[in-house]
Amino acid sequence: MSSETLAVKGEGHWNKLSVTSESHAKEKSEKSFVIRMTYLFLVLDVTCLFMQLGIIPYLVKKMGLSLVWFGYLQTTFGILQLIGGPVFGRFGDLFGARTALIISSMSAAVCFFLLGISSNVTLLFLSRTPSIFMHGLPGAQMVVTHLSSPAERADALGKLGLCFGIGMIVGPSLGGVLSSRFGESCTAFVASFGSVLNVLLVTSYIPARTKPLSAASSDQQKMSKASNVFNLGEITRLLKVPCVMKIFIIKTVAGLPTGLFMVMFSVICMNFFGLKAEHTGYLMSYFGVTQMIIQGLVIGRLTQSYSDETLLRLSVAMISVVGLAKVLMTSITHFCIIVLPLMLSFSLLAVISDSMLTKSVPASDTGAMLGLCSSVHSLTRTVGPTIGGFLYHNYGVPSFGCLQFGVNFILFLYLLKNKLNHRENKQPH
Predict the structure, then answer these.
(1) Angle between the 277-293 and 332-360 helix axes, to the nearest 10 degrees?
(2) Residue 360 · residue 241 · CB < 8 Å
(3) Maximum C-alpha span of the chain
(4) In which region does residue 226 sit, left (phi positive, over 0), alpha (psi from -120 to 50) or beta (all else)?
(5) What pLDDT is recorded for position 6?
(6) What's the CA gap between 318 and 345, in Å, rounded?
(7) DSSP code at position 96
């Protein structure tokens, strides 16, 4: 073979490599853009959510109802979210993350609009009904999970927490200004309009298919075999995947005591710390800023340096220590110091457990898995007022710390003695 022929072949080979490299770079750039649009979606979604959450107690008061009715309303919301979470995740697996996000935003728009026209108890409770499909965070997690590699996933999911923190700060502030100047109904209508904007954002910038091709074809096979979105067997099947049940139980049990404390937080601020509503708002903003810093800057660096299993142990150990600190807490100053390790440990637990669970199942089932994860928070919101109220009224604030320390200390010992043997399900990218 002549040197000229070899030169031609060599040139063709390098041309192919160049095209492949350019194609890969373009694909990566497109994925990064979609992820950024997903972050923007979540900021707007959470902002609208917190805008309307802040006006509900005032609407209840305007109707001459007691705070007991407010509790009923919150429980209703929790139950609907608990039922809808796994179903929403499976819907996303079958019909795509973009369709799921559109359904979520449309439901939010209807929910907030009904809240704005609520003039009686019936309409107020009816306005909560669409919340069964309102799962903006799990929907955003679906997109990020589909478009990020397993190595980058925890960092990408952590940045969703940063977006959540921004919405958590902007939402109540904007809602408070609108309510004081134009009334509660106007705030609800603005939140509804914001959700409509999110529908347009998703339709314009989120592609119809975000999963790898092999996962998408697997979904098509599933639709022919079990197209029923409400197929509980398909949802619970994921818990039988090796290690999934263990990680899911650890996620639920480790986070429950902290969740109970957060459900009762407004009551604790008012009665235990003696704070006014304005000061409680400042404290919530402090929460939001802390969460933004931790999930946006800290968690990503930790995931690059340590394994998921190591970070899971670390989060459980930190939650246990924070529980002990709560037992000794006597003032708002003490609590402000505790907030830093509290948010770090709780955020780390949420991000790492979600990352491990989505890596453990096939790419075609990540939506259903994220739906199951979101149901943990809904479960806490549902049972939290009853269990948290019992602990607070009978044993006081230190009881939350005792429960948190005891449960997580036992979990930490278990994790030290038993390896999870976590194996990633190989997902194409």
Answers:
(1) 40
(2) yes
(3) 94
(4) beta
(5) 47
(6) 6
(7) -
Return left, alpha or beta for 183; rule: phi > 0 is left, psi -120 to 50 is alpha, else beta.
left
The Cα angle at residue 279 between residues 275 and 280, in degrees rounded to 5:
75
Distances (CA, A) of 148 to 131, 355, 384, 415: 28, 11, 34, 28
pLDDT of residue 8: 46
Residue 220 pLDDT > 60:
no
Contacts of 245 (CB under 8 A, 6+ apart): 239
- With 0-12 CB in 10 A as exposed, 13-18 as middle and 19+ as buried, what is 158? buried
The answer to whether the CB of 373 falls within 8 A of the CB of 246 is no
Say how far apart CA 352 and CA 348 lie, in whole Å. Answer: 6
User: Are 198 and 41 a contacting pair, CB within 8 Å?
Assistant: yes
Asked whether the beta carbons of 270 and 67 are under 8 A apart, the reply is no
**Closest C-alpha among 106, 131, 123, 130 to residue 59:** 123
Separation between Cα atoms, residue 256 and residue 426, nearest integer Å:
31
Percentage of the chain modeled with pLDDT above 90: 31
Asked whether residue 161 carries a pLDDT value surpassing 70, the answer given is: yes
Q: Two tokens at 128? A: 């909560």
d(CA 191, CA 5) in angstroms, rounded, equals 67
Binning pLDDT at 50, 70 and 90, where does residue 214 land? low
- Please tell me whether residue 134 adopts helix, strand or coil conformation: coil
**pTM score of the predicted model:** 0.75
CB atoms closer than 10 angstroms to residue 390: 12
Kindly report the number of other CB atoms within 10 A of residue 277's CB atom: 10
Rounded to the nearest 10°, the torsion over CA 294, 75, 336, 341 is -40
Specify whether the backbone of 365 is left (phi greater than 0), alpha (psi in -120 to 50) or beta. Answer: alpha
Q: At what angle do helices 97-116 and 3-53 cross, to 10 degrees?
A: 20
Q: Can you read off the two tokens belonging to residue 125?
A: 């409770």
Closest CA to 404 of 294, 269, 261, 268: 261
Burial class (CB in 10 A: 0-12, 13-18, 19+), 90: buried
d(CA 26, CA 235): 35
Count Cα atoms within 13 angstroms, Cβ side, for 351. 35
CA pair distance 136, 302, nearest whole angstrom:
26
